[in-house]
Each structure stands twice: as C-alpha cells, then as structure tokens.
C-alpha cells in the first residue's frame, strides 16, 4: 500500500492533480480528503460561523484522521465523516464507507502541519500556484459550492486564508518530496509524479506495507 500526501494552498490545483491520478490508476486509488475531518462546529452561532478559521491546523481533527489512516493501512475499512461547510458540522446520520486500496491519497491544505500524519506518508507532494490564481479559484469555488458572495469571499481571503497560508501552508512546502508548480496544469511535474508512483507500485515491497 502506498500512502501519498498532496498538500498546497487553497485553490492551488490539488483537486486537478488528484483527478489526474484517479484517471490513470482508477480503482487502485482511494482519496481521503482532509476537509472531511474538520472539527464539528455546528454549535456556533451564525455570526461565529462566518468568521470561523478553516485554515488553522487546530480546525482539523488530526487524531481521527491519523487513526483512520492507520486502520486502512492495516487493511481495515473505515467510515469517513461527512462535513458540511454550510452548517460547519459533521453529519450525524451519514458516513462514507472507504475500503483499502493499493494507493491511498490524503489531500488537504494543512496535512503537512501534522508530524504524526506525515510520518504515515510514503510520498509527499506540494501543489504550488500564484496567489492571484488561487484567489480566482477560491472565489469561483466558494460562490458556486459554498453559498458565499464575492464580498464575503474576499473578506475571508484577506483575514484568514492569506495570513494562514503564509504562516502554516507555504512553509510546509519544505517537507515535500515532489513540488508541482503552476497548479494542476504542469504536465511535466505530474508526469514525474505518475512515474514515481508507477515505480513504487512495481516494487512489491511497497504494496506489502
């Protein structure tokens, strides 16, 4: 089993890289998104939810993420939480059943801020992108998928996303084994990543870990 961590700033193109890997490796790959492991904050007031800092490591339930990743490495299925950005809470009635696979991808902006989680990874990838490109993707995503308006997105970017990126996410790039510049559109870097994964998979000792 090969554990791959894919980190990078919000809107950097991590999902594009993940989708490319899924197209190539198909049913040999399982994705565990960091976003499923946000701590439940449904108890907060509407005003408090508006200013909640999703970009700080303390927002993530790393204990649960590490525990479930350890389970899946042992060949056990997990029940992945379902998190809603609208309610800022986890679903009490729904989980996602995840079976082990040859390749496990852990994807998220903060995954390289947790040493315990990083120690479980075999390959660490950082997806990099210019700030302007990231902001445009964040705006498009948050408006379309999370019910935000332009003013709210820009306010959140300036007050939490950008400063947290500079404090926690950008410095975590130094832990990466492979850096993918220009987001998910750098085909050369992605091809290098694909070749690295193929080589690891062909080494049968990886699959026995």
Please describe the structure with a list of short key phrases separated by commas or semicolons.
five-stranded parallel sheet, Rossmann fold, globular, 7 strands, alpha/beta
CATH topology assignment: Rossmann fold
How many individual β-strands? 7
Content-based structural category = alpha/beta
In helices, the fraction of residues equals 40-55%
User: DSSP helix count?
Assistant: 8
* Largest sheet data: 5 strands, parallel
Strand order of the largest sheet: 2-5-1-6-7
CATH structural architecture: 3-Layer(aba) Sandwich
Strand content: 15-25%
Please identify which CATH superfamily we are dealing with: P-loop containing nucleotide triphosphate hydrolases
Global morphology: globular
What is the residue-averaged pLDDT? 89
**Radius of gyration of CA atoms, rounded to a whole number:** 17 Å
**Helix and strand pattern:** EHEHHEEEHEHHEHH
CATH class: Alpha Beta
First CA to last CA: what distance? 6 Å
The low-confidence runs, each spanning 5 or more residues with pLDDT under 50, are none
The count of domains is 1
A few lines on this structure:
The chain has 209 residues and is an alpha/beta fold.
């Amino acid at each position: 089993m090969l554990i791959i961590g894919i980190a990078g700033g919000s809107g950097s193109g991590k999902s594009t890289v993940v989708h490319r890997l899924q197209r190539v490796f198909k049913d040999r790959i399982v994705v565990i998104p960091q976003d499923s492991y946000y701590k439940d904050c449904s108890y907060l007031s509407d005003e408090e939810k508006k200013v909640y800092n999703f970009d700080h490591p303390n927002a993530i339930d790393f204990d649960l993420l590490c525990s479930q990743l350890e389970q899946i490495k042992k060949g056990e299925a997990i029940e992945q939480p379902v998190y809603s950005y609208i309610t800022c809470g986890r679903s009490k009635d729904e989980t996602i059943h995840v079976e082990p696979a040859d390749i496990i991808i852990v994807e998220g902006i903060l995954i390289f801020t947790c040493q315990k989680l990083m120690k479980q990874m075999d390959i660490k990838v950082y997806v990099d992108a210019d700030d302007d490109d990231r902001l445009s993707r964040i705006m498009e995503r948050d408006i379309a998928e999370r019910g935000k308006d332009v003013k709210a997105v820009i306010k959140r970017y300036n007050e939490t996303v950008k400063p947290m990126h500079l404090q926690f996410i950008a410095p975590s790039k130094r832990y990466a084994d492979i850096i993918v510049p220009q987001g998910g559109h750098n085909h050369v870097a992605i091809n290098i990543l694909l070749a690295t994964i193929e080589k690891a998979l062909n080494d049968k000792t990886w699959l026995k870990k």
